Amino acid sequence: MTPGEFRKYAHELVDWMAAYMESVESYPVKSQVKPGEIFDRIPGAPPATPESFSSFMKDLDEIIMPGISHWQSPNFFAYFPANTSPPSILAEMIISTLGTQCMIWETSPAAAELEEKMMIWLRDLICLPAGFEGVIQDTASTSTLAAILTAREKKTGYRINEEGMKELPQLRIYCSEQTHSSVEKAVKIAGIGRKNLVKVPVGEDFSMDPSRLRDIIADDSRNGFLPCCVVATIGTTGTTSVDPLRAIGEICAKNDIWLHVDAAMAGTALILPEFQWMLDGKEYIDSFVFNPHKWMFTNFDCSAFFIKDPSLLIRTFEILPEYLRTRTRGSVNDYRDWGVPLGRRFRALKLWSVMRLYGTEALREKVRMHIRIAARLAELISSEEDFEIMAPVVINVVCFRFRPKDLGKEEVNRLNETLNHRLNDSGKIYLTHTDLNGNYTLRMVTGQTNVTIDHVMRAWELIRAAARSL
Ligand SMILES: Cc1ncc(COP(=O)(O)O)c(C=O)c1O
């Protein structure tokens, strides 16, 4: 394809992209295809000779689009969002065009220095302490793995990196029963072992009970384990409960334990002064992750990982083969030493475009509006006799269920599961569920880039009507 042909097709593609944005609500939010349907429509081998761009686009529309679940639909209330926005998409186009590989400063100084500056912008926007430094990782799972590996190495004097796992007491990692499964995955990968991940009970509001944490750590220390790291969550996946950082941090400080904070989605709410209470105790934090690719209108992938002492992270990940030796080493940030991958995309550019083309006040207003509409939805649900709210509505997630009178627990669970499937199969909205104390709980997240109160009101009407027709 010549640059001239590229220009022609790219213009066509931009029209397709804008049309998609304008018509996204006309698609079924959750793809309605059956397993194998798309696979069977794709030829078993690539063509030997070039096909036309128009035939490629035809297949995109006819084969691929029916198998897409529309995360960018404002009727998407499932999981946590993976938002895009026009400023972010424009930056992604530039990133793809430049195709830089940003493993070290020398392979694109602008990428490294923009990343350094964007992490300062973000750190200050969410009000993390000034000494923290940041790096962009692909996901919160990777960021948390980096934190746990760094905590492991610090705790063992960098011996596991050198000698492997021999002759060391068993390390322990702590998190709450509501913590995201990425922590369990990180503990497995780090060689610490799933059995050494201790899940601390939560209170009625689904946040970690610090007195239980204190007792468990004391027991572990007495029994010869080596407490290594606590992962606290700001905004758990099930209910957006917030673990009490100050109380947890005091326990960590007293016992020389690393404190990592996972704020994957809810970290975006920290751009609002009225949500700074979630960071009370921030002076105890060693590392912190939040994903602009969830709620901050920045295309997946973009996970912001912050650390109080980056030298510990670098010492954990550093490698120096001959071909990566440079004259600038030591005077610049070579981000390949700040995490698992060597090769890195130029992700800072989309943060730059999102923060500049929105401006921080517009970002705040949008996030505030999402939080306001969650509160309004919760009010409406509470006012119905046959529905109930299942967890405090802290930020932008509403947990609820349909609960007609005189039904047993199992029947209510089955009814809500059927309701969830029926709503998703309608293609009109997309919700997911969680389990709260054995109760099948519907969960509605109001965080999609373009969601408004009207979308939420229409969704609520659908939910009420579908529930009562069961
Ligand atoms: C609280 C929390 N932490 C971590 C993750 C994992 O995020 P990622 O897909 O960026 O690894 C999620 C995903 O939703 C989450 O809710």
- The fraction of residues assigned to DSSP E strands is 5-15%
What is the fold-level CATH name, i.e. the topology of the largest domain?
Answer: Aspartate Aminotransferase, domain 2
Helix content: 40-55%
Could you give the order of the helices and strands? Answer: HHHHHEHHEHEHEHEEHEHHHEEHEEH
Average residue-wise pLDDT: 97
Give a quick account of the main beta sheet: strands, pairing sense, barrel closure.
7 strands, mixed
- How many beta strands in the DSSP annotation? 11
The helix/strand class is alpha/beta
How far apart are the termini?
55 Å
CATH architecture of the largest domain: 3-Layer(aba) Sandwich
Radius of gyration: 24 Å
Number of helices: 16
Spatial strand arrangement across the major sheet: 1-7-6-5-4-2-3
Query: What form results from the Cα inertia axes?
Result: globular
Name of the CATH homologous superfamily of the largest domain = Type I PLP-dependent aspartate aminotransferase-like (Major domain)
Small molecules bound? pyridoxal-5'-phosphate
**Quaternary structure classification:** single chain
